[in-house]
Amino acid sequence: xxxxxxxxxxIFKLDxxxxxxxxxxxxxxxxxxxxxxxxxxxxxxxxxxLRTEEKPFVPSKNERERISFLDAFPMEYPTxxxxxxxxxxxxxxxxxxxxxxxxxxxSHVIFQGKxxxxxxxxxFAGEGNCxxxxxxxxxxxxxxxxxxxxxxFEETDVIARHVEIENEGEDIVxxxxxxxxxxxxxxxxxxxxxxxxxxxxxxxxxxRKLGTGYQGITSRRGESGHQDHPFMxxxxxxxxxxxxxxxxxxxxxxxxxxxxAEVSQFASVRWQAGLEDEDFCWMLEPGQxxxxxxxxLTFSHTGLDGMTKNxxxxxxxxxxxGKYKDRKRPILINxxxxxxxxxxxxxxxxxxxxxxxxxIEMLVMDDGWFGKRNWDDSSLGDWQVNEEKLQGGxxxxxxxxxxxxxxxxxxxxxxxxSPDSDLYRTHxxxxxxxxxxxxxxxxxxxxxxxxxxxxxxxxxxxxxxVLESANxxxxxxxxxxxxxxxxxxxxxxxxxxxxAHRYMLGVYELQERLVTRFPDILLENCSGGGAxxxxxxxxxxxxxxxxxxxxxxxxxxxxxxxxxxxxLSTMGAHVSDCPNHAVGRTTPFETRGYVALAGTFGYELDVxxxxxxxxxxxxxxxxxxxxxNDLIRQGEYYRIASASENHLYDCWQVVSADQKESLxxxxxxxxxxxxxxxxxxxxxxxxxxxxxxxxxxxxFSGDSLMYAGLQIxxxxxxxxxxxxxxxQV
Length: 729
Ligand code: GLA
Fold this sequence. Notes:
Layout: E1 2-6, E2 11-15, E3 19-26, E4 31-39, H1 66-72, E5 90-93, E6 104-112, E7 130-139, E8 144-153, E9 158-167, E10 173-186, E11 190-196, E12 204-209, E13 213-219, E14 231-236, E15 246-252, E16 257-263, E17 268-275, E18 282-284, E19 289-291, E20 294-300, H2 303-318, E21 332-334, H3 336-339, H4 345-358, E22 362-365, H5 393-403, E23 407-412, E24 416-417, H6 422-426, E25 446-447, H7 453-469, E26 474-477, H8 499-517, E27 522-525, H9 535-538, E28 543-545, H10 554-563, E29 571-572, E30 575-576, H11 589-597, E31 602-604, H12 612-615, H13 618-634, E32 636-641, H14 643-646, E33 649-655, E34 661-668, E35 678-680, E36 690-693, E37 699-701, H15 702-707, E38 710-712, E39 720-728
Parallel strand pairs: 21-22, 21-31, 22-23, 23-26, 26-27, 27-28, 28-29, 30-31
Antiparallel strand pairs: 1-2, 2-3, 3-4, 5-10, 6-7, 7-8, 8-9, 9-19, 9-20, 10-17, 10-18, 11-12, 11-14, 13-16, 14-15, 15-20, 16-17, 24-25, 32-33, 33-34, 34-39, 35-38, 36-37, 36-39
Bound molecules: alpha-D-galactopyranose (GLA).
């Protein structure tokens, strides 16, 4: 297993437990070609990849047809301008303005483990088998070296790819596009699965058949975004949730991206993922290196379930860091939907007092505690406590909260600046804008130019002072508007195209400072709900607020799409008040609890004002959290049924690693239309084990529960739910 170079055949073979990835060298020019990615194959299978019948057409044998060769060759990292007319992974411009680049293999190294990618979040080797192949390619004309890096994670069936580009010449080279990965395969024909959405409707799964030509998703918003997600799966014809070949790619990046597939005239598919290139242009000076973000590739021959399993284990083991990586998170109560901007110390303490009696463990003070912020139109950038609201200051409030036996958390939106702020009055040039042109506003705010170290430092000093001033154990880091009017008053004209990526590097730098300086703080990322829920952010925060839509029924699709890639422990989910503030629907308090239990679990309501019958249920919900959270956080997740597909009911399951225990959550969305019991076929149990449904006498064998199903009675009504706990007998 791991990485092997077969010298005679000039083939690299990258093996994980269930997959193989093959790269070959072609012709005397040493073109790097993609041979295969898919289900694991043994060594003796290599002969079929040598493409002997195509040999006469390589340029060294038939230079006359060089272009037809390049037009069809499955290039491992294709470049622009040489006769491969499909989308290039790398597009550069020389100092003379030419845009031609051709890469040939020069050398390679294979080593155990994995290096960091400077300035960027990336997977780390951790425990388990991880080895890395670095293939160095070169364009001698441009003196440009391109290192293709492949880290092979054997147990989780993931290959992490990124690219490093170094200018070894004496002239500037301009990077116009630098993808993180490119993959050429024969089209089978594939369907693409993406996660689409908008504010309060994030990550709804969508499938479409690949047609010929170019199709994909992108973000030009400066954040990964509510709208599309930096992920795509390609499903071979007939692949389902449980079976068939599925390829997945996702980026460890939170800014502008592009992921697309292009089906060529010869029905081959070129699949690429990386930085979006419309708002990207990077001056690479002699001696400098550019690092692309990382792409995580996986392959499963057991349908989408296999892909989900691979990504969940991978993200748990190789992306998430810090104290809370494997720990249970405190049950929080957040005051946003409880008070919005209208709160003071007294109000917060009244919530905390009531919450502590019910078993809630942490109070989170959301937006509105700083500057003169009484609405969303001022004070971002002025991170000083508003003592008119917090009479006696922050530390006094935190002390009182701590006396109740609760932890305290706080909200920041570090990347933003309100035009009505002292920061803007002092440093108007710190906002991203084109000089002389009024920048577009969103939520009455502008974005800070985090490409400038002094801006990052300025915000950090303020944040550090606040975090040092009291016993703060949690931070919610928000980001509430996309970037526009890209202009930096510090970057020279020829570097303005670097702003969007440099901005992200600044955000990562500040998040790294925060988690290094305050390693005990639990960080939760957020972006107007879930607009920056991605593997890049999970490198800094073990959990991310999933959506501003806290309606239990709308959350089903949002959490289903999110959990297709990310472990349940990462999904910020709270019980909120009804009618729901986002959609106006009323659902039973109990159901809201079941849905929130599938994530981090917490409350987002004024516990002093909700109906008594709801409040009375909180201790029971908290008991469920304590009973099941280890299983939910650490267990294997399975999607059983989807209300987005059947419009009637939703069901998911978690199974412990030793298969001794499982929790099934069933939500009946529409009662009337179904009105009958249903059998749901469970997953992941041990066929030979016997299980008892907690609270019942009957026992069932694992195989009957998986192959025949568990009968779930009609629950009578809409929006009702049930937890079913199976325990081995
Ligand atoms: C965003 C977040 C909310 C809340 C508000 C505060 O919308 O998603 O949870 O923090 O900002 O302004």
